[in-house]
Specification:
The structure holds 2 protein chains of 2 kinds.
Chain A lengths: L15 E12 L2 E12 L3 E6 L5 H9 L6 E6 L2 E4 L5 H6 L2 E4 L11 H6 L14 H14 L15 H13 L9 E5 L7 H16 L3 E6 L2 H7 L2 E6 L2 E6 L6 H9 L17 E10 L2 E9 L3 E5 L6 H8 L7 E6 L2 E2 L5 H6 L2 E4 L3 H4 L7 H6 L7 E2 L2 E2 L1 H14 L16 H13 L5 E5 L7 H16 L3 E6 L2 H7 L2 E6 L2 E7 L5 H9 L5
Parallel strand pairs in A: 3-8, 3-9, 6-7, 7-8, 13-20, 13-21, 16-19, 19-20
Antiparallel strand pairs in A: 1-2, 1-4, 4-5, 9-10, 11-12, 11-14, 14-15, 17-18, 21-22
Helix pairs in contact in A: 5-6, 14-15, 16-17
Chain B lengths: L4 H25 L4 H4 L2 H26 L7 H17 L4 H26 L3 H20 L10 H8 L1 E2 L2 E2 H19 L1 H11 L1 H6 L4 H27 L6 H15 L11 H20 L4 H25 L3
Antiparallel strand pairs in B: 1-2
Classes of the chains: A alpha/beta, B mainly alpha.
C-alpha cells in the first residue's frame, strides 16, 4: 500500500473512497457531461443511471482516462487527479479498475490466458511462460472470486455471466488491499439473459460485502432495485438525482431519469382474432426440434427461452438465414419455400436481429442510407437512384419513428443506441411487413426509447401484421405479448396466455430442469 | 475543433485536392523545374501515362469499396497488354484485339470471383496467387522480351495523339471514371457494395445477395484492368512484360488514399483520381528537379501512410 488511507468518513459513517468533482466534457456542440459530481462509499454498489446518450459511459471513460475530460477531478486514496490529463495507466495506479462495455476478453483463449493478459505471464528463463505457475495463480483467482470454471477451459465455452465475472476478476486480481479499490462496470449485463444476470448480480453483491466499492452502469431498473445502495441519475449530461433506490418505486425512478412519466403500454387484449397469416408445421433447424406454429393478424407472440434454447434459431430459420432441416411454411394458406433472406422479404417478412452492431448496423453509412437499405430498388428511377426522394422519405421516417438525429446525412454510428435501434426497426416497418421477426428488439435501449419501440410494434401489428418477438426479458414478453411460447433446449415446452402470462411463470417454464 | 462544422467539412473534403493544386503550382514556379514541368510535352506525358494507372486504380477501387483487396490488378493489365500486342502484331483487327483484352481481364476477374465466393479463399491470397500465375503466363508467352512487332499505326496513334490539346487516353479515362462513379453512386448495386463494405452480415440480412455482389465486383475489376492493358499498348506502341507489376502498388495506394479526399472516410472515384495525379505531379516534379530515384520511393510510401492515416482519423472522428 502506498500510504495510509486518508479518506474522510462519509455522512452515514461509511468511508468515501472515490469522489468525482465537477466533471465536464463536450463533443462539438453537445455537452456530454455538465458539472457532474459523484461520491462512492466503501462496500457499496453505486448505480449510474440514465437514458441513451445521458453521459454515463462518457463519465466512466473520463475517470478511466480513456477520453480526457474538459474539466473536473477525482479524489481517491487522498490524492487528487485532474481528469483533463488522466491516462489509463494513472487510473490503474490510483486503484481504479474497469470493465468497459466493449468486450475485452478473448473467447478463443483459456481462462488462464485471459487472466494473464494485461497483467503478464509468469515467465522463466528466456521469457518462457511457466504454465504451471500461471495455471495455479488462475485457479487461486477463480477461487477467490468464487467463479465456477476450470483454468484450462476456453473462455468462450463458459456462460456469458461467468465470462463477465472472469473479466471482473481480471480487473481486480492484483488489488493490493481489498478495502479501498474501486471497480467501475459499464453495462455488464447489457447482453446477458435474465438468469445469467442474477448470477452476476449475486457475485457483485458478494464483492461489495467484502468491502469493494462498485460503480455500476445500467439501463435495467430491476437491477438497480436488486443491488444498488445508491444511484446517481444522469440526464443530458447533468446529475438530476442522487437517491437511495430503496426509497423510490419504479415509476418514480423512471420519472427522474427521463424527466417525464412514461405511460406503461397496456396490452391490447381481447382483440378480435384476425385471419391466420403464418402456418408452420414441423420446422426444425439447428437446436430447434420440429415445431408447429400459427400466427394470426394483429397478434404479438413471444418466444421465451434461455440462450441456446432455439429462440433465435426459430426466427433465423423463418427468415431463411439458417436453412431449415425440415418443415413446411404456409403463408395465407399457401405453401412457400423460404430459403434465403430475399425470399423471406418477398413473402413480406421482416427481421430485426439480436445483435445490432454485428448484424444490422451499417455504421459508416448515413442514416438515410441505413433506412433505405431494404428498399433501394424502389428509388431506382430512370437509370439513377433518386437521392432527393430518399432523403425526403428519411426525414418523414424520423417523424414517424421518433428518431432523433442531427441530419439524415450523419453516419449511423453518430446516433445513440436507442436511435440506431429505431432506425433498424424503421428500415423494416417501412416495407409494411406482414410478419415481424424481432429478436431482442429493445436490447441496450433506454426506458423511454423502449416504450416508443413497443408503441411502434403495436402500431405495425394493429395494421394487420403479426409479430414474433424473441426476448430474454420475460418482463417485456409478459407486458407486450398476447401469448408466449416457451422453448427449452429446442423443445416447445409451454404456451402461456392471458392469466398465465407473467414474468415469473415464464422464467419457471424456461428454467425448469428437464426430467431425466 | 473550434472550426465551424461546414468549414471543417470542406477542409477535410478538399485538402487533398488543394495539395495537388499546390504541388502543381510549386513545380510550375520553382526555377529548377518550372520550365520543363509546364511544357506541353511533359504535361501530356504525365497525363497519358497516369491515365492508364488511374484506370487500374479504379479497378482496384470497386472491390475495395467492399473492403476486399484485389492484388491482381496490375498483373491482369499486364496480361491483357501482352496478349493484345501479340494479337495486333499478328494481324488481328483492332476491335477484336480490344475485345480480347477486355475479355481476358473479365475472365480472370471471374476466376478471382469464383475462388473468393465459391471456394472461400481469402481475397488477398486468391488474387496474389492469380497474379503470380499471370506473371508466369506472361513470361511464357513473351520469354521476358517486349512485344513490339507491327502494331497498327492508327491504334498507336490514338494512344499518342491529342484531342483539344489533351491526350486522347485521358478522355477514355474520363469516360471510365464516369462509368465507375455512376455505378458506385447512382445504382442499387453500388449502394450494396458500400453496404457490404460497412457490414457484410447486416448486408446479407437486409436481403442483399452478398456473394453475387462481391463476385461481380471482382469481375468488373478484371474487365477494367483488361481495358487498361489495351490502352497501355496504344500508348506505348508495345507491351513490356514487366509493366503490369509496376501498376499494382500505385493503383492500390491511390484507391486507398481516395478515402482521404472529396468524400472523407469513403472510398470514391474522384478521390482516387486526385490521389493518382497528386502522386504523379509530385514524382514528376522531383524527377525534373534531378532528385535521385529513391526519393520517389520515400515520397510514395510516406504519402500512402499519411493519407490512409488521415482517412482513418477522419472516419473515426465522425464516431463521436
Amino acid at each position: 500500500m502506498r500510504h495510509g488511507l486518508d479518506s474522510q468518513p462519509g455522512r452515514d459513517g461509511s468511508v468515501i473512497v472515490l469522489q468525482a468533482e465537477h466533471v465536464s466534457k463536450a463533443f462539438g456542440a453537445t455537452q456530454a457531461l455538465d458539472d457532474v459530481s459523484l461520491e462512492l462509499r466503501r462496500g457499496s454498489v453505486h448505480a449510474l443511471l440514465g437514458g441513451n446518450g445521458s453521459g454515463k459511459s462518457t463519465l466512466i471513460k473520463a475517470i478511466a482516462g480513456v477520453e480526457p475530460a474538459d474539466a473536473g477531478a477525482i479524489a481517491i486514496r487522498g490524492e487528487r487527479h485532474d481528469l483533463r490529463t488522466m491516462t489509463p495507466a494513472r487510473a490503474r495506479e490510483a486503484g481504479l479498475h474497469f470493465v468497459h462495455q466493449q468486450r475485452s476478453t478473448f473467447p478463443d483463449l483459456t481462462v488462464t490466458e485471459n487472466l494473464a493478459i494485461g497483467r503478464g505471464f509468469e515467465t522463466g528463463v528466456g521469457g518462457r511462460i511457466e504454465w504451471r505457475r500461471a495455471r495455479q495463480r488462475a485457479a487461486a483467482v477463480l477461487e477467490r472470486f468464487q467463479i465456477d470454471a476450470d483454468p484450462d477451459t476456453e473462455l468462450g465455452r463458459l456462460g456469458p455471466a461467468t465470462q463477465t465475472m472472469v473479466a471482473i476478476a481480471r480487473a481486480l486480481q492484483d488489488q493490493d488491499g481489498e478495502r479501498d479499490g474501486v471497480l467501475l462496470l459499464d453495462e455488464p449485463t447489457a447482453s446477458l439473459p435474465a438468469p445469467e444476470v442474477a448470477l452476476l448480480l449475486d457475485a457483485l453483491r458478494r464483492y461489495a460485502e467484502a468491502g469493494q466499492a462498485i460503480v455500476y452502469v445500467t439501463h435495467r431498473l430491476e437491477e438497480v432495485f436488486a443491488i444498488a445502495d445508491r444511484a446517481t441519475l444522469l440526464r443530458d449530461g447533468r446529475v438530476v438525482g442522487d437517491v437511495e433506490p430503496r426509497r423510490l418505486d419504479h415509476d418514480g425512478l423512471v420519472e427522474l431519469m427521463m424527466g417525464r412519466s412514461v405511460a406503461q403500454i397496456e396490452r391490447l387484449r381481447g382483440r378480435p382474432e384476425g385471419r391466420t397469416i403464418l402456418t408452420v408445421r414441423g420446422l426444425a433447424a439447428g437446436p430447434l426440434a420440429p415445431l408447429d406454429l400459427d400466427l394470426r393478424e394483429g397478434e404479438i407472440v413471444g418466444v421465451a427461452g434461455l440462450t441456446g434454447s432455439g429462440r433465435s434459431t426459430l426466427l433465423k430459420a423463418l427468415f431463411g438465414v439458417i436453412p431449415p432441416e425440415s418443415g413446411e411454411i404456409r403463408i395465407d394458406g399457401r405453401p412457400r419455400r423460404i430459403g434465403s433472406p430475399p425470399e423471406a422479404m418477398a413473402a413480406g417478412f421482416a427481421y430485426v436481429p439480436e445483435d445490432r452492431q454485428r448484424d444490422a448496423a451499417f455504421p459508416a453509412l448515413s442514416v438515410a442510407e441505413n433506412l433505405s437499405m431494404t428498399v433501394v430498388p424502389d428509388y431506382w428511377h430512370r437509370g439513377a437512384l433518386n437521392r432527393r426522394r430518399e432523403r425526403r422519405d428519411a426525414l418523414g421516417l424520423f417523424d414517424t419513428f421518433l428518431i432523433a438525429a442531427e441530419s439524415d446525412a450523419a453516419p449511423l454510428r453518430s446516433l445513440s443506441g436507442g436511435n440506431q435501434q429505431k432506425v433498424v426497426l424503421a428500415r423494416w416497418l417501412r416495407r409494411n411487413p406482414r410478419l415481424l421477426l424481432l429478436d431482442q428488439p429493445t436490447q441496450g435501449v433506454d426506458v423511454g426509447a423502449r416504450a416508443e419501440i413497443y408503441e411502434l410494434i403495436h402500431d405495425a401489428v394493429a395494421g394487420g401484421a403479426a409479430a414474433l418477438l424473441a426476448s430474454s426479458d420475460f418482463e417485456e414478453l409478459a407486458r407486450l405479448c398476447d401469448r408466449v411460447l416457451v422453448l427449452r433446449k429446442g423443445e416447445l415446452v409451454a404456451e402461456l396466455r392471458d392469466g398465465e402470462l407473467d414474468a415469473d411463470r415464464i422464467a419457471r417454464e424456461a428454467n425448469a430442469k428437464v426430467a431425466a | 475543433m473550434t472550426l465551424q462544422r461546414p468549414l471543417r467539412h470542406y477542409l477535410e473534403a478538399y485538402a487533398f485536392l488543394g495539395l495537388l493544386v499546390a504541388a502543381a503550382i510549386f513545380f510550375s514556379v520553382w526555377p529548377e523545374t518550372g520550365e520543363t514541368f509546364t511544357s506541353a510535352a511533359n504535361l501530356r506525358t504525365l497525363v497519358s501515362s497516369n491515365s492508364v494507372i488511374a484506370i487500374v486504380a479504379l479497378a482496384a477501387l470497386v472491390p475495395l469499396v467492399c473492403y476486399e483487396f484485389d492484388l491482381s490488378v496490375g498483373a491482369i493489365a499486364g496480361l491483357s497488354a501482352v496478349f493484345v500486342a501479340t494479337a495486333l502484331a499478328g494481324g488481328t483487327p483492332v476491335p477484336l484485339a480490344i475485345a480480347l483484352g477486355v475479355g481476358l481481364g473479365l475472365g480472370v476477374g471471374c476466376v478471382n470471383a469464383l475462388l473468393i465466393t465459391r471456394i472461400g479463399v481469402n481475397a488477398v491470397i486468391a488474387t496474389l496467387g492469380v497474379s503470380i500465375i499471370l506473371a508466369g503466363v506472361v513470361n511464357q508467352k513473351t520469354g521476358g522480351i517486349s512485344v513490339t512487332g507491327d502494331i497498327p499505326l492508327g491504334f498507336s496513334e490514338f494512344g499518342s495523339s491529342n484531342w483539344l490539346g489533351v491526350p486522347k487516353i485521358a478522355f477514355v479515362l474520363a469516360l471510365i471514371a464516369l462509368a465507375v462513379y455512376y455505378l458506385l453512386e447512382h445504382t442499387p448495386y453500388g449502394r450494396y457494395l458500400y453496404a457490404f463494405g460497412s457490414n457484410r452480415e447486416a448486408a446479407r440480412l437486409v436481403g442483399i445477395r452478398t456473394k453475387l455482389t462481391l463476385g461481380i465486383a471482382f469481375a468488373i475489376s478484371g474487365a477494367l484492368c483488361g481495358a487498361a492493358g489495351v490502352l497501355q499498348v496504344a500508348r506505348a506502341g508495345s507491351a513490356d512484360p514487366k509493366v503490369g507489376e509496376t501498376f499494382t502498388l500505385p493503383a492500390l495506394a491511390a484507391a486507398f488514399l481516395s478515402a482521404a479526399a472529396i468524400k472523407p472516410g469513403r472510398y470514391n472515384v474522384a478521390g482516387t483520381l486526385v490521389a493518382i495525379f497528386f502522386l504523379a505531379v509530385l514524382n514528376n516534379g522531383l524527377n525534373l528537379a534531378g532528385s535521385p530515384e529513391y526519393v520517389s520511393n520515400y515520397v510514395n510510401g510516406v504519402a500512402l501512410i499519411v493519407g490512409v492515416g488521415l482517412a482513418v482519423r477522419l472516419g473515426r472522428r465522425q464516431e463521436v
